[in-house]
Design goal:
Layout lengths: L16 H21 L14 E2 L12 E2 L2 H18 L5 H19 L2 H10 L10 H20 L2 H18 L4 H9 L3 H7 L6
Parallel strand pairs: 1-2
Helix pairs in contact: 1-3, 1-5, 2-3, 2-5, 2-6, 3-5
Length: about 200
């Protein structure tokens, strides 16, 4: 008799934790190597690395380990967790994380292409944006991993509430967030651009 789908073991459940870690490390290494080949700087041109850089409208934004957009990459993790869970419910969760890393890594490469960099500069408030450093890009992917693992542990309601909180805080403090970023990348609105040029609300 064929077992019920719910009773079947997850796909790739026999892969060891060390193998999953090795695959994840290879993905991060490839991301860094490709970014380097694209001409991205390993660290900030300023010559030092900071744990946190909070000034969005500056040439050092997206150049250090973390910044306000780190919150957006955590939200990426929330969204990717939900998406791959729905699309691949029988895949072992480390396998779903690897898929999320591949998507995030591909986005990091696209985001740092000359076309997207110029799109950001022309259509958003990011006039001083010249692409991520490699350390910032890898940190963004690690932040997505953190968001993915957080979503795995938290109830769905708590994950949604946390994502909304991050979006709200970013909108009120830097007048930007993941939602606005997507909107302005796809179709820039002058009204939003003018609003984003204002000072922090909180």
């Amino acid at each position: 008799m064929i077992a019920n789908t719910a009773e079947r073991p997850p796909i790739a459940s026999g892969v060891t934790a060390w193998h999953w870690l090795l695959v994840a490390a290879v993905i991060l290494a490839l991301q860094a190597l490709i970014l380097y080949a694209m001409g991205r700087l390993p660290i900030c041109a300023c010559g030092y690395v900071k744990l946190w850089h909070g000034a969005v409208q500056s040439s050092e934004n997206s150049q250090h380990i973390t910044d306000w957009y780190t919150l957006s990459h955590i939200v990426h993790g929330f969204l990717f967790y939900g998406a791959v869970y729905l699309l691949f419910p029988r895949l072992a969760w480390p396998g779903r994380l690897i898929l999320a890393m591949l998507v995030e890594g591909c986005w990091e490469l696209v985001e740092n292409s000359n076309f997207i960099i110029e799109r950001y500069r022309a259509g958003t408030i990011s006039l001083d944006y010249y692409g991520d450093t490699i350390v910032n890009s890898i940190s963004d992917t690690l932040s997505m991993i953190g968001g993915f693992l957080l979503a795995k542990k938290l109830p769905v309601g708590a994950t949604v509430a946390l994502a909304l909180l991050f979006e709200l805080v970013m909108a009120l403090h830097i007048r930007d967030n993941l939602t606005l970023n997507i909107i302005m990348l796809i179709h820039p609105f002058e009204a939003i651009k003018q609003w984003q040029a204002g000072p922090p609300i909180i």
